Amino acid sequence: MSGLEGPEKLAYMANQIARYFAAQPGEGAAQAACDHLKSFWTPAMRRTITAHKGSVALSEVAAAAVALLPEAADKGAA
Amino acid sequence: MAKTQEIDFGTPASTAETQVTLTVDGRTVTVAAGTSILRAAKEIGTSIPKLCATDSLQSFGSCRLCLVEIDGRTGTPASCTTPVAEGMVVHTQTPRLAKLRKGVMELYISDHPLDCLTCPANGDCELEDMAGAVGLREVRYGADGASHLGAALDASNPYFTFDPAKCIVCSRCVRACDETQGTLALTVAARGFESAVSPSQSETFMGSECVSCGACVQACPTAALTEKSVIELGQPERSVVTTCAYCGVGCSFEAQMRGEELVRMVPHKAGKANHGHSCVKGRFAWGYANHRDRILKPMIRASIEEPWREVDWDTAIAHTAAEFRRIQAKYGREAVGGITSSRCTNEETFLVQKLVRAAFGNNNVDTCARVCHSPTGYGLKTTLGTSAGTHDFDSVEHADVIMVIGANPTDGHPVFASRMKRRLRQGARLIVLDPRRIDLVRTPHVEAACHLQLRPGTNVAVLTAMAHVVVTEGLVDEVFIRERCDLEDFRYWAEFVARPENSPEAMEAYSGVPAAEVRAAARLYATGGRAAIYYGLGVTEHGQGSTGVMAIANLAMATGNYGRPGCGVNPLRGQNNVQGSCDMGSFPHELSGYRHVSDDALRATFGALWGVTLDREPGMRIPNMLDAAVEGDFKGLYVQGEDILQSDPNTHHVAAGLAAMECVVVHDLFLNETANYAHVFLPGSTFLEKDGTFTNAERRIQRVRKVMAPKNGYADWEITQLIAKALGYPMDYGHPSEIMDEIAALTPTFAGVSFDKLDRLGSIQWPCNDKAPEGTPVMHVDGFVRGKGKFVITEYVPTDEKVGPRYPLLLTTGRILSQYNVGAQTRRTANSLWHEEDRLEIHPHDAEERGIGDGDWVKLKSRAGETSLRATLTDRVAPGVVYTTFHHPDTQANVVTTEFSDWATNCPEYKVTAVQVSPSNGPSDWQEAYEALSRRHRRIVAVGDPA
Amino acid sequence: MTSRLFVPKDAAALAVGADEVVRALTQAAGKAGRRIEVVRTGSRGLFRLEPLVEVETDEGRIGYGPVSPDEVAELVAAGLFDGAEHRLRIGPPEALPFFARQTRLTFARCGIIDPLSLNDYRASGGFAGLEKARAMAPQAIVEAVKASGLRGRGGAGFPAGIKWETVLGASGARKYVACNADEGDSGTFADRMLMEGDPFLLIEGLLIAMRAVGAAKAFVYVRSEYPQAAQTMTEALTLCRGAGLLAEGDIEVRLGAGAYVCGEETAMLESLEGRRGQVRAKPPLPAHAGLFGQPTLVNNVLTLAAIPTILSAGPEAYAALGFGRSRGTAAVQLAGDVKNGGLFETPFGLTLGELVLQIGEGTESGRPIRAVQAGGPLGAYFPASLFDTPFDYEAFAAKDGLVGHGGLVVFNDTVDMAEQARFALEFCAVESCGKCTPCRLGAVRGVETVDRILAGRDPGASLELIRDLCDTMKFGSLCALGGLTPLPVLSALNHFPEDFRAPHEAAE
């Protein structure tokens, strides 16, 4: 991750988070990862990842989690 | 030394439940069976003369002053070694005893210098006291006999002297080194009249294995072992009980004073964390408080390229407030933040986060725990429900198995390590998980049953493999799990860990630990009786730091190791107030008591009291702040008592972030490395100069008491308050106790805490509220705080920091006994005599391949950067692994550490960095450039100087 | 026909040339064309006869002694192999009054059998006690020891059965038996003689003790000055181990490191643990927390060696012997200026005078006896006026003396009792472990004070001081080393005050 900046760094972090929740039992991995992002990431970070979700490499669960963020809805609404 | 406010009962208390009643000099006393007569007498205020007995040590019976007569028994037994018996009738003062005691004292004094008036212990000498107590009036042996009066003084230790001429060979020092400290550095050499206290094999103290903990000095009844500060300054005249400001053990000390001058720090016997023991840092390394490097006047500058300009407090505060307001006006409310310190008091920490949340108006507050134990907070809260260790330190005395994971207690938490070693000497068995052979693996009379020397970064692999053994070999505590844990989660977890890919055999490929060793350790942990886990930053500072913490919590749940003394899961906190700074709401997403900022009702409560509306979104963590700064979005930072440039990973990135800010305010004792990039310097106060509380690793809240006025003019909490006021946010606390009252009002786990109660009880372990008015030594006794214990799946994810042809070695970092963290304090004391520089430990094989000899300069290079330091060849580290400490800014070990971090908390992965090591002729270009920058950025123009 | 000869290899015999005698005998036999077999035994214990050569004849064993190597040829020529007459011929040794007057229970085999022959041992009744004990419950063994009245032979005379019972009743993860063979008293040699002359007896006693108290491991702590004893014990143990006799647990020989104080039981335990030989405070008693903190039975060699007899012959037979509360036999060791120096096993109760004058037959030098030191270097000096004292723990204690380990050292009229008092203090100063103050400092101050008295410096005050010091040491010391040092000093002062006058004073 050294050298990663901005959206790429955030994507790396989101993938790490998603990997943890993906390993947990049940179907709610994306929601749990999304909740984690809501709990610990600033709105600005969430906006950035949402804005760049198409251009950064996100795992399936990470992408689903980002899609569940309120910022994604805002963007969609906008 | 022995002067203390406390009573010395002569022998340790008995823990027996049976009570025994006896008569001492006609007075009846009832004590626990097993109590010595000496102690029983003292319980009713009868002082039997004694010299070799002291209640911190087992009775020894050598001085022969405490002899008594017992009805129905012949002879004159020593009261220190004779236990009480029911109906016993004891006489402590008879003509026969008086004659015997005089006879013994006459012998003592016949071999003791008669220079009492000029002796540093004059007024604090038990020998002097006893001569008086037994009424010795003459010494008839003459002055021409054999004596030890010409024996040479050993002044080799920087903090104390050993004068064998004044030694009475009571062995208290030897026994303190054995029993209390567990180093066994001292012995009595020779025999008979020639008997003499000897460090190691007739070495000097400094040349011996002595770790300078001070236990021997503390135990000495004469001036044979005396602090140099006492020799220089004289006997103290008053003392104030306070709490050490070094590690997370939280030792209680008496600061012994002469006027405004600190004479010595003496461990406080009633301190429940340390029980009268100390280490070389807390006991002796306080000279930094008076060091000439200390900055006592505020300073500002427009740019970091300018020299510092001393200003008065008003100017500095006004300038700070103006700058923050300017930045917020220009870049937005989110463009500033603050960092609280785990070195400062709870009250100060609380005020800084309040300043950020209420006066800055955002949640951009974080603390240095980010880079150490934030995964503990996440992991233990998730599995157990509380972000804290489960047990008190005393609990270790009941442990049958002790598992130490990624911690080096003898260096990092020496006073607790001594208690651990004592328990291990008593027969508890030890499991160590560490890439490095820490001292505890093999120390006098202690040898680890298992040392799993895993590759850095594979904790989760090994811990999950241990769980595999516990589950597949039927070692789980089914009753405990059924009663206390979420069964569905358990079943998922059991199925997960039982998979073949989680077996020790499968994990061996990652961890390098032979499967048989993992199996043996798991069996011992699960079946060896009460098992306690103590872990450190070797667990948390990883990409899977939080997962590692949860793997530990799982393992303890699976084996039922909660709720009773002798077991539990306990983080060893690095700094004095890591626990407290986290408790106080220093994390950007949490208010005090670990409650998320998104809770509307909670924010409303705080908002009502503080008169503001709080932001509902989490703020930036330290790495986020630095990232944002590099990207131009974060411009102002208030850093209290922390040196992020030296302590945080990837120094280049930290420097770039700081350099991109417009106002960095450093509030510290010294011009630290971060201050090289600062625009405002606010001089801080030491722990001796303020009131407050620290919370140690066992959740124990203890008082810090002011023993002298702040040399910089203000206590730190007052400075934060001045900034708030200058920003237009009113803060008007008259005393830190009022801040604690506010904390208690806002935080359910602190509801019952007050300075008054702390003064009364000595210390309080939170939670302290109506349910537990005197606090909670052991948590989760009847059930977990979160309800049912939660088993979490701990899939092992190898770190992306991998070795390869360019960086074939794994670097891991740690600390050493004599130095503390970034060394700002300890480097400014004689502790540096033990550790002058950071060194790189490298295995002889790896060194040989590279042509590196012991003591050679080497270049240490990673993807992030490079530095140079000298090498130490040792097989403490396995081939393929190198190790260093990060105490010295000249080395800047964090130049090479990377930005990989824990998935949940962004705690940096300090413990794994792929590196290459090669011969070098001295400091690297970067080090030389930084040295020059430091010199330039530390220039100060005093007020009145024509700048 | 092969002649069977018996020559001791006991250290006392070796010291006066027993090995050379054996070589000379072999040579002479070769020359004479006689076939001989030499059995190396222990010593019978009358040292003026060593090297004692015995030959088996139709009338039993005939002794010749003391034999020097250059007399061998002459003896062989005279018919030694057939028991013929010679001026060195003493006839059947057991008929000598010194032996005939003894009651040998513990030392019955000493000097008679091959110490390392299990067959000899068995043939002479060995292991009968062990076999009995193995059929008994531990408590029953303890009862037998109690009933025998046996008291510890190391010096303190504590009832052995009570100590055994305490260890039996103590709880611990493991238990140990530690045999104290650190025989350091001047004028004593009984432990050594027994270990060199009948090691299986001690092993048998140890096994019974281990069974009785429930110990699975025993140590024999032998002083380093006894290499032959240590070697004999080690070889005997190897034989027993090979024969599967150590059923109760293994027994290990450990060598001391040359400190007198390691004969003190707690210092011995420290030494066995690998530490500095320093005395421990009691309690806890070793019986409760001894070796490695576990319940430990500490007994002297002679105490343990008395056990097989007590079991095989029955405790009543043992208890029937003796005097007052001192039951059974004592191994009296006569040394110093005495004609019949050696080991004399007899029931308690003979008077000191009988022992030194009748049994010992007075001084070797022919000079009058002035004093007898009983009980080792820390025992009291008895003047002739106290020769009516019966050899008994209580009777000796009543005269401010002690039986100790049974050593009697005879001094003739040339002895300077002030020098002897000074020596006792000097001995204490040299041997003190240094733990307790009265012993560590007192011994040195005592020597200095005696010197002052002898130099005539303020003798009155110095005499008072030495008595005060003796009081401090006697009642203040942690162990018997410092506590007993005043005994020889005070006895010299009390019985021989004339020796404490300074030279000029004496001349007046």
Structure description:
The complex is a heterotrimer of chains A (78), B (947) and C (508). Chain A is mostly helical. Chain A has one domain. In chain A, helix 1 packs across helix 2. The model of chain A has no long low-confidence stretch (mean pLDDT 88). In chain B, 29% of the residues lie in helices and 17% in strands. Chain B is built from 29 helices and 37 strands. The longest helix of chain B is centred in the middle third of the chain and has 19 residues. The longest helix of chain C has 18 residues. Chains in contact: A-B, B-C. The interface between A and B is medium-sized, with 24 and 37 residues.
- Tally of discrete structural domains of chain C: 4
Query: Into which percentage range does the β-strand content of chain B fall?
Result: 15-25%
The CATH architecture name of the largest domain in chain C reads 3-Layer(aba) Sandwich
- Morphology call of chain B: globular
From the spread of the alpha carbons, the general shape of chain C counts as: globular
* Helix/sheet category of chain B: alpha/beta
Q: How many beta-strand elements of chain B?
A: 37
Question: What's the helix count of chain B?
Answer: 29
Main sheet makeup of chain C: 5 strands, mixed
CATH superfamily placement of the largest domain in chain C:
NADH-ubiquinone oxidoreductase 51kDa subunit
Note poorly predicted spans of chain B: none
> How does the helix and strand content of chain C classify structurally?
alpha/beta
**Highest CATH level, the class of the largest domain in chain B:** Alpha Beta
What is the annotated CATH architecture of the largest domain in chain B? 3-Layer(aba) Sandwich
- How many beta-strand segments of chain C? 16
| Protein chain pair with the most extensive contact, residues per chain | B-C, 41 and 38 residues
End-to-end span of chain B in angstroms?
51 Å
| Average pLDDT figure of chain C | 96
Please summarize the sheet with the most strands of chain B: 8 strands, mixed
Strand order of the largest sheet of chain B: 15-14-25-26-27-12-13-37
